[in-house]
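Continuing the series of single-chain predictions for the mutant panel. This is the parent chain; the variants come on the following pages.
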Amino acid sequence: MNRLFFQPHQAGLSKVKAAEHTLRSINPDVQFEVHNYNITTVDNFQHFMDRISNGGLEDGKPVDLVLSCVDNFEARMAINAACNELGQIWMESGVSENAVSGHIQLIIPGESACFACAPPLVVAANIDEKTLKREGVCAASLPTTMGVVAGLLVQNVLKYLLNFGSVSFYLGYNAMQDFFPTMTMKPNPQCDDRNCRKQQEEYKKKAAARPKEDIFVEEEEEIIHEENDWGIELVSEVSEEEMKAASGSALDLPEGIMPAYTIPDKEEKSIDEAPVTESEESLEELMAKMKSL
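Parent structure:
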């Protein structure tokens, strides 16, 4: 966030407080709720889950969607655990440490892969990510990459909440090649998160209870054969000679290609044209001659 809108005069403020100040100045009609704490601790995690369950615009109602814009795997796993336990739909996003790639991911508990179903190597190997960071060295920063990923995330959010277009379950961004891979990942039946496995079972039950859609099969029309009791036949009113005359000259086309229609050959007719001579008679005199005929 400090690359996108953390301003010099906000020095000393927490990121969440600075974010609220900036966003409120853009749109004061938006309701904000700021909590500056670490969601990975036990007490804060319980409060975080409570706000997801009861922090909607209507009192006591859950939120519509959770967006993850954190900068470490530990916080992502905490969000993943909370959403799996509550069955809360959320969107995860991130930018790589070299700042030239990123991704967004829609996670529907039980229906799509959660963050623990296919975790990054650092999480799967149970490596403490703090040991990977060198003292005095921070991750690369490229605001353009972060702006692109943030834009993709918000666009996906709008499509999901307003129900238009196609919502991406996973959309990547490679800034070096301007490459946007997209895919859909199914949940892992052996996921380490037991609540994810529980949500998968619930989703299977709901899917099995849904009424099956009737597949429409177009009935083939019964073919009426030429033989009939009354001897009725369809006869073309155009003779073969007329068909040949209307077919026009054959075109030299490659095999397998045929024209949609043909142009009849123009008939060459000799017309004797009488020379037109000028007359000294007026238009009124000519009109009088025509009337007398």
